[in-house]
From TrEMBL:
Keywords: Hydrolase, Signal. GO terms for molecular function: hydrolase activity. It comes from the Bacteria. Residues 27-54 have a biased composition (Low complexity). InterPro entries: Sortase, Sortase_dom-sf, Sortase_F. The keyword Transcription does not apply. Residues 1-26 form the signal peptide. This is Class F sortase. Residues 25-54 are annotated as: Disordered. The lineage of its organism: Bacteria, Bacillati, Actinomycetota, Actinomycetes, Kitasatosporales. It comes from Streptomyces guryensis. The keyword Transmembrane helix does not apply.
Length: 206
């Protein structure tokens, strides 16, 4: 699937401002942020530049060993108001893949959304997303059995008002990944920032 455009891009950008704040009554700490990395998302390990794209297949699992994430993946579409759906606030929190973005391993940015906190249930699946570092591994298991492995290229904490929609959802000429949650200071209305992880395909195997 090609990168996002038109209505899907606008909806995705709106969702990024709203996603993953955990809803009323979130009980975990007030920050999922950290010092944002300064490496531009186009700077990736040399090996990642030559990895061919993989066949289109829906992601079913996401693993991030460095921060202990191993989660089933649910499919997210558009809500009735045109915004992107987010995973439900639930005890068994899961990450979600935005189905109007490329599947992992296809050219373009494949977008995953997750909560930082899940109300009274505590920490969300992306609670420690801001702790990732450049070069660390993200593994997406696809429905066809392929594992598409990505290397982190950038981790940023940005004010929601300054969300970099073009960099997150815009066209790129290779397979990349975007993971998005909330972060920064928590107020009564939710978190003030977004945490965004950028990653590039480094390998793929059955």
């Amino acid at each position: 699937m090609s990168p996002l455009s038109g209505r899907a891009l606008a909806a995705a950008a709106l969702a990024a401002l709203l996603v993953a704040c955990g809803g009323p009554g979130a009980t975990s700490g007030s920050s999922a942020g950290g010092t944002p990395a300064r490496t531009p998302s186009s700077s990736v390990p040399p090996a990642a530049k030559s990895v061919p794209a993989v066949g289109r297949s829906t992601p079913v699992r996401l693993r991030i060993p460095a921060i202990g994430v191993d989660t089933p993946v649910m499919k997210l579409g558009l809500a009735a108001d045109g915004s992107v759906q987010v995973p439900p606030i639930a005890a068994h929190d899961r990450a979600g893949w935005y189905e109007h973005s490329p599947t992992p391993g296809r050219r373009g940015p494949s977008v995953f959304l997750g909560h930082v906190t899940v109300g009274a249930y505590g920490d969300g699946v992306f609670r420690h997303l801001a702790e990732l570092h450049r070069g660390e591994k993200i593994v997406t298991r696809l429905e066809n059995g392929t594992a598409a492995v990505f290397a982190v290229t950038d981790v940023r904490t940005v004010a929601k008002a300054d969300f970099p929609s073009d960099e997150v959802y815009g066209n790129v000429n290779r397979p990349e990944l975007r993971l998005i949650t909330c972060g920064g200071k928590r107020t009564g209305a939710g978190y003030l920032d977004n945490v965004i992880v950028f990653a590039a395909l480094s390998s793929a195997s059955p």
